[in-house]
Design goal:
DNA polymerase, domain 1, 3 domains, three-stranded antiparallel beta sheet, mainly alpha, 6 strands
Length: 288
């Protein structure tokens, strides 16, 4: 049985088990001391003998995610968007819990609250990051967590991918709206997407060194499914590339042309320009 006593104005809980060093922790409230003692004894009863859970009790979800972002995220292909996503998670209420108090109920509440404002696909990506961070903590960082609470909850069903295509005169409307944009690249980016079928991230990651104008293809080292591929370039796509070069020359583009990005545009700028363009064109349900 645990011992709860008053010590120097606070409540101290102490748990002793044969073969293990005694564990003690102080609290302002007696109820908190009793709860901590019960949880620790429950863990020991389930077989966690000889395992130090203090790191889990001291490490918050925010601290876990911060370390994960610093050590694990940079190794990933989508490091930048994942870091942005983690920054948002670190500001949520779940970030205040320690790994010892993070239960499946808490994670389920986080899931349900997020679903009020984001899509199922977004929350599933959040949960995947959190689950992987916990697994790394358990396996590599010496932070003992008996169970991964994220694996115990239901994941929301993600919507099926959209197959929306341009219809009727939508291409003309879209390009007319793009020409009215202050972003000089968005019209060229849209035409290039129509001609090549490339995703927005693939186009924005494309470098001049990957373009072969003689054989008329663009080489993608890394794609969404992880496999490299060569994308054929139509005459219209090649004309876009020529227009991009002229645009860059007019801007006194002074980077190494062969190694610079084809579309000198950030992901956020491209996203905002696209959103404004489809709104101006009055088109719905279309993605770039």
């Amino acid at each position: 049985m645990a011992t709860i006593r008053r010590l120097r104005g606070r409540w101290q809980a102490q748990v002793r088990r044969r073969g293990l060093p005694p564990r003690a922790k102080s609290f302002d409230l007696k109820s908190d001391a009793e709860r901590w003692a019960r949880n620790l004894e429950s863990q020991l009863d389930r077989g966690a003998f000889g395992i130090d859970t203090r790191k889990a009790e001291q490490t918050t979800v925010r601290e876990l995610l911060a370390r994960y972002k610093a050590e694990i995220t940079p190794q990933k292909r989508g490091a930048i968007p994942e870091a942005v996503k983690i920054n948002g998670m670190m500001k949520s209420d779940i970030a205040h819990y320690t790994l010892a108090t993070l239960t499946s109920e808490v994670v389920a509440q986080y899931r349900d609250m997020r679903l009020l404002t984001v899509t199922p696909g977004t929350i599933n990506r959040d949960l995947s990051i959190l689950s992987h961070a916990i697994e790394i903590a358990r396996r590599e960082w010496g932070i003992h967590v008996l169970e991964n609470p994220v694996r115990q909850i239901r994941r929301p069903s993600a919507a099926k991918g959209r197959q929306r295509r341009l219809e009727g005169n939508e291409e003309a409307l879209l390009l007319e709206a793009a020409r009215a944009s202050r972003n000089r690249y968005i019209e060229l980016l849209i035409i290039f997407a129509i001609e090549t079928g490339m995703r927005r991230g693939e186009m924005l990651s494309l470098r001049w060194s990957s373009i072969n104008t003689e054989c008329r293809y663009a080489h993608l080292d890394i794609t969404k499914n992880g496999d490299p591929r060569d994308v054929p370039l139509s005459r219209r796509a090649l004309a876009v590339l020529q227009s991009v070069k002229e645009l860059q020359r007019s801007k006194e583009f002074d980077k190494d042309t062969n190694d610079s990005f084809v579309f000198d545009l950030t992901r956020n700028a491209a996203r905002k320009a696209w959103v404004r363009t489809v709104e101006r064109a009055g088109i719905e349900g279309l993605s770039l």
